[in-house]
């Protein structure tokens, strides 16, 4: 385990923790500003010079990889996952271009302008609760994302509208 990843690995309990044993050596990626990645039996550590090393596991990691990982629209993690309560418990992890919210409703990314409106409503602990689906096209130039207690629609014309 290379030094810039070691602190996050140790903070997660090393080989006896949630990450377990290394399954690969660290590899470099030039995507979204560049960094390094190392995989373990229970998760992955992502490192950038700007934000340091952050572990990712479980449903958050699965959603992140489904969305293209570090080369996808979320970019690199900027913090570790945090457990949150709200209307139900779950985990939240922040990225360069959004966040992944994982609860009993599933793991979903909330990005860009939809996210600004979601954060303004208190995110998962606010009136909307946890996401229940990914953002989808709701017509030409319109996207919408559902939450436990409402929907956020976004268009260039009207901006974000919470329903």
Quick description:
By secondary structure, the protein is an alpha+beta fold. It has 3 helices and 12 strands. β10 and β11 (150-155) form a beta hairpin.
Structure description:
The chain has 163 residues and is an alpha+beta fold. It has helices at residues 3-11, 58-66, 112-120, and strands at residues 27-29, 35-40, 43-48, 52-57, 82-84, 90-95, 98-103, 106-111, 136-137, 142-147, 150-155, 159-162. The protein has a 4-stranded antiparallel beta sheet. Strands 5-6-7-8 form a 4-stranded antiparallel beta sheet, sandwiched between helices. Strands 9-10-11-12 form a 4-stranded antiparallel beta sheet, covered by helices on one side. It is globular. It starts with a helix and ends with a strand. The model has no long low-confidence stretch (mean pLDDT 93).
Task: Please give the structural blueprint.
Elements: H1 3-11, E1 27-29, E2 35-40, E3 43-48, E4 52-57, H2 58-66, E5 82-84, E6 90-95, E7 98-103, E8 106-111, H3 112-120, E9 136-137, E10 142-147, E11 150-155, E12 159-162
Antiparallel strand pairs: 1-2, 2-3, 3-4, 5-6, 6-7, 7-8, 9-10, 10-11, 11-12
Mean pLDDT: 93
Subunit organisation of the chains: single chain
Spatial separation of the terminal alpha carbons: 47 Å
Strand order of the largest sheet: 1-2-3-4
**Biggest sheet features:** 4 strands, antiparallel
Order of helices and strands: HEEEEHEEEEHEEEE
Count of individual helical segments: 3
Counted beta strands:
12
Helix content: 10-25%
Labels describing this entry:
globular; 163 residues; single chain; 4-stranded antiparallel β-sheet; 3 helices; 17% helix; alpha+beta
